[in-house]
Amino acid sequence: MEYEKVSALTDIQKKEIEQLIERVHEFDGSKKDPYLNNQFNYYPQMTSFFLARSAGELVGFVMLYADGNYTESVDVFMVVAPQNRHQKIGTKLWQNAHRVLREFGYQKWEFIAEKGFLDSNPNFLNNKNLIADPEPEYQMRLDRGKQEFEDTRTDLAIRLLESEDVSKVVPIYTESFPESSAKEAVTYLTKGLADIANENFVLIYDKEIVGCCSVDISKENEYYLYGIFIAKKYRNQGFAYNFIIKVINWLNNENSYRRICLLAVDGSNSIAMRLYKSIGFEVETEVYYLYET
Predict the structure, then answer these.
(1) Where are the alpha helices (DSSP H) in 54-181?
(2) Which tens digit of pLDDT belongs to each residue from 102-138?
(3) pLDDT tens digits, residue range 62-75?
(4) How far apart are CA 245 and CA 143, in angstroms?
(5) Which helix (H) or strand (E) holds 119?
């Protein structure tokens, strides 16, 4: 078994990982894909990707998503090829990743797992000395077809985010995500803006920016919506609903062959769940974050 680690992935490595994850999804009935980029990691020089190969074939993968400094928690995504499980590959990959986390001072991390996998492996948590957060995250899916969604507020408009917008968006960002600093907000927005695999939209009302939404366009057949937020004083007035509708219609007009939209929502956010369901999103999978006991 050969092991390697890198801070950023090549296009060839990304393709290998995507093919491995596709096989794992088929076997486990899982749905969630990792974000194969380290651009939002707080320490860009930190090794974030760990690969295991058998006779040159990729059979295991770990990714560290660490967008906060060493005082915050890191998301750990791990997969091992079905035919190569129970060979301590995951253990070795985690040992390598854990070593890097400790080098950078991280002391908290969460492993990502889906309900289908946990249901099929009822002893997994006990065997690994893990506990699952009782509140899942839901990945939601919208199969758009060719439909045009009808917005209900013509006084709202959207356009692509521009570099000069960042300073105006930062206060809305920190208001929406109070755990983030203004510096983190600037980093998030500027890096997203520079990434050709992202489309970034702002919502305009009365000539002012009142919301923002990012879309990962790296997949050929789907969009992944994330980082959706609205200024506090405009919430519960149909702004978010119409914002998402307008973004979906924009995407549909730009690339009509992409039929699928995905997004994630915290299980405790019942307001967002109702919003997304009202548009037509349905729960595709339940994602659980696992902690070491």
Answers:
(1) 89-103, 115-120, 124-127, 166-176
(2) 999 999 999 999 999 999 999 999 999 999 999 999 9
(3) 999 999 899 999 99
(4) 13
(5) helix 115-120
